Sequence to fold (143 residues):
Amino acid sequence: MEFVDPRYNESLEAEAGEQYGIQPVPFQVAGRYEASVVNSYFHILVRYGDQFEILDFRRLVEVQPGVGGGPPEVRLANLEYTLTSTIKKVVQGFQSVGTVLEHIRKPSLLPLSHPGIFQRTSQKSLKSSPRRQKNWFRDRTIL
Fold:
C-alpha cells in the first residue's frame, strides 16, 4: 500500500492524469470571513498487476440536501465496503504468470524479465505429472 499526493510530484501528477484519468477536483471552501475554490485530489487508485480501478469523489462521498433549506450534508459513503469490494474485483481480474503459461498450447517464444519467475512457475505448475512437465518443456522456447 502506498499513499501519494500528486500535487508535490509533477511526474506522479502526469502519470495520474495520463494513465488513469485522475484529475484534481475543485472544492468550494467557505470560512467565516472568506470563500475560495481549492483543487484537490480525492481519488483512490487500487492497482494490482495489470488491473486497476479508481474510486473517485462520486463513489466515496454522499451529499444529502440540507434540512429546511440549510446547507447540504456531506459525508463519506460506506468506505469500508467500497474499498473492500474494489480490491476483491481488481485482485480477481489479475492473471498471474503461472496461469498464463499453463494455458499456452502451442510452441511460443516468451520474453521473461526475471529468471525467478520461470523457476517458481515451472516448479509449481509442473509438479502434477512428469509427462506434462516433459511436454511443457518440449513445446516451449523460453528466452
Notes: The radius of gyration is 24 Å.
